[in-house]
From TrEMBL:
Native organism: Paracoccus shanxieyensis
Described purpose of this protein according to its UniProt entry: Translation factor necessary for the incorporation of selenocysteine into proteins. It probably replaces EF-Tu for the insertion of selenocysteine directed by the UGA codon. SelB binds GTP and GDP.
InterPro entries: Beta-barrel_SelB, EF-Tu_GTPase, EFTu-like_2, Elong_fac_SelB-wing-hlx_typ-2, P-loop_NTPase, SelB_WHD4, T_Tr_GTP-bd_dom, Transl_B-barrel_sf
One annotated Gene Ontology cellular component of this protein: cytoplasm
Protein name per Swiss-Prot or TrEMBL: Selenocysteine-specific elongation factor
UniProt-listed GO biological process terms: selenocysteine incorporation
Length: 625
């Protein structure tokens, strides 16, 4: 169990921790000289149950609330300290508000310096504290009078903490490893050491981890868990990790040590935000604040998604950060004002990859409403990348119960939504064919933009391939059609085309005659020949490489294969190389290459070109369907 102290300055938090553990948590010379806690202090003790309880002692001075916040994340129980002689003070209220916003639901109130107050004073304070806690997550917490000086009540408090330790549920170790770093330093002969609270998962000696958002790789060479040497550190423990890789100068408070698969920092987050009733004015668009997340502190701008958030309101908002941060969905956060004088509010993270535009659309708000569950059902969401979902929730794998996969992808959606998506695609293609019977099919991008939910281009390409393999659609180069649709040529047109095709094949296939030459040889009208060839091109039987210059589809595919076989330097080839292989003239060779450039099948840099492997499916030149 991890216990975090909270309370006003000089109410005896550090003295109480020492009375409970025998450890003076003030480690800095300045802290001892001034008699106040400035940085986080740590102590460990067996309270009698055989388990080691860790204590995080935080500063009480208002100037060091940011340090208090760095220690408050990840605690199991709050030890709210209130001095009997002073009573409830400003930082008592602010620390309690922070604990409430962080969702910390277990706590004990230590009424310190009880030897300085009589029974009536203690009784009155007990009532005041009961009223103070009402309506917060610590409502009903036990109040125990103690004196660190005389020792009165210390055993009672220790027993209460031991009972809480026994009732503490183990945190999930089946998730991926994350540890919020609050200190980084060097030990002579050992090297870099980082300390923090393990938020999820487990880490073992020899593990490869990443320091995020830095992105630095590190290896764990040693572990101390709850102040004892260990082979592994588990969720819920305070750990010190001895690392190889980055130096302690590279690592800062607020960084997160984590499983490398979780390293995906974000700079924009959708959240559920509660504004404290004490806030003097509403939060409006681009409201400036300081975000406290785990042990990190970052400048932020707040964008309410449902109108201004009034004092006491809870609503959806987007937070735009000054720099990237390592985070996980459902992490709790605190917002303070930019002058660091007051706490504004706090809440939980909902979506780590939200859109920057159209973020307040009704359909987007509906998705965010579904995402507010600690682990929302994927079937309730529009379209979810399973890999990203597992990563952002620190899961080993997402639960796909009741969901369907978008064919060819790792995108999950409800079966109902997949059926609607497929039907919409069929309907749109049928309508397009009815309105354009002579056209080959619909362009990929226009179709993608019509469908809901909107699918990213790489996933849409994979989806189309899977649907084509299932026989639900047909792919013709850059066009999509229903399998039964083909642009129609009349019998007369087919007769003329049958005369033309042999003239486009054979030895002259790489430099076939143009429309005017074909019309001359067939004693036909040039416009009619052009019309027939364009219709055949829409059918995918031939390709118009340049104006009035048509090649058979077989020849197009053959030329693509030639491109792949050309001698290359670092993947690049030259136009003369292609010209020589096709025994063509320079002008025609350039026209052919320009045609491939426009389709994105080749990429050009000056006089050099290279194959774009991502577009090799346009003419099934990669051997796929």
């Amino acid at each position: 169990m991890i216990v975090g102290t909270a309370g006003h300055i000089d109410h005896g938090k550090t003295a109480l921790v020492k009375a409970l553990t025998g450890v003076d948590a003030d480690r800095l010379a300045e802290e001892k000289a001034r008699g106040i806690t400035i940085d986080l202090g740590f102590a460990y003790a067996d309270l009698g149950g055989g388990a080691i309880t860790g204590f995080i002692d935080v500063p009480g001075h208002e100037k060091f609330v940011h340090t208090m916040l760095a220690g408050a994340g990840g605690i199991d129980l709050a030890l709210l300290v209130i001095a009997a002689d002073d009573g409830i003070m400003p930082q008592t209220r602010e620390h309690l508000a922070i604990l409430d916003l962080l969702g910390i639901g277990r706590g004990i109130v230590a009424l310190t310096k009880a030897d300085l107050a009589d029974a009536d004073r203690l009784a009155t304070l007990g009532t005041d504290i009961h009223d103070l806690l009402a309506g917060t997550t610590l409502a009903g917490s036990r109040v125990i009078p103690v004196s660190s000086l005389s020792g009165a009540g210390i055993d009672v408090l220790r027993d209460a903490l031991a009972q809480a330790e026994a009732a503490t549920l183990a945190r999930a170790t089946d998730r991926r490893f994350r540890m919020a770093i609050d200190r980084s330093f060097t030990i002579s002969g050992a090297g870099t050491v980082v300390t923090g609270t393990v938020l999820s998962g487990r880490v073992q000696v020899g593990d490869q981890i990443t320091i995020s958002p830095l992105g630095a790789a590190a290896r764990v060479r040693g572990i101390h868990a709850q102040n004892r040497k260990a082979d592994a550190g588990l969720a819920g423990q305070r750990c010190a990790l001895n690392l190889t890789g980055p130096t302690h100068h590279d690592i800062h408070r607020g960084d997160v040590a984590l499983d490398p698969l979780l390293d995906a920092p974000t700079q924009r987050i959708d959240v559920l935000l509660r504004v404290l009733a004490s806030e003097p004015k509403a939060l409006t668009t681009w409201f400036p604040a300081r975000l406290h997340l785990g042990a990190s502190e970052i400048g932020a701008r707040i964008v309410p998604l449902q109108g201004p958030l009034q004092p006491g309101d809870t609503g959806l908002a987007q937070i735009v950060l000054d720099r990237p941060v390592a985070a996980t969905v459902q992490d709790r956060f605190i917002l303070r004002d930019v002058s660091a004088r007051r706490t504004i509010g706090g809440g939980s993270l909902i979506d780590l990859r939200p859109p920057a535009r159209r973020r307040s659309r009704p359909e987007r708000l509906a998705v965010l409403a579904a995402m507010q569950d600690s682990l929302p059902k994927l079937a309730d969401l529009a379209l979810v990348d399973l890999d990203a979902h597992a990563r952002d929730h620190a899961l080993v794998a997402s639960d796909t119960t009741g969901v369907a996969l978008l064919p060819g992808t790792h995108q999950a959606l409800s079966p109902r939504l997949l059926a609607a998506l497929r039907q919409k695609m069929q309907d749109e293609l049928a309508t397009y064919h009815a309105e354009n019977p002579d056209l080959q099919g619909m362009g990929r991008e226009p179709l993608r933009m019509i469908l809901t939910p909107r699918i990213a281009k790489p996933d849409f390409t994979a989806f189309l391939r899977a649907e084509a393999a299932a026989g639900l659609i047909a792919l013709d180069g850059a066009f999509i059609r229903l399998p039964q649709h083909l642009p129609r040529l009349s019998d007369t047109d087919e007769t003329i085309l049958a005369q033309i095709l042999p003239m486009l094949r054979g030895d002259a296939r790489f430099r076939p005659p143009r429309v005017r030459d074909l019309a001359h040889d067939l004693s036909a009208d040039e416009a009619e020949i052009r019309r027939i060839l364009r219709m055949a091109a829409r059918q995918g039987r031939i390709d118009q490489i340049a104006h009035d210059h048509f090649f058979t589809r077989d020849t197009t595919i053959e030329m693509i294969r030639i491109l792949r076989e050309l001698p290359q330097q670092d993947g690049w080839f030259t136009a003369p190389d292609f010209r020589d292989r096709t025994q063509n003239g320079r002008k025609v060779a350039i026209q052919i290459l320009d045609f491939f450039d426009k389709l994105g099948l080749t990429l050009r840099r000056g006089d050099l070109r290279r194959i774009n492997p991502h577009r090799m499916d346009l003419f099934a030149a990669d051997g796929s369907d």
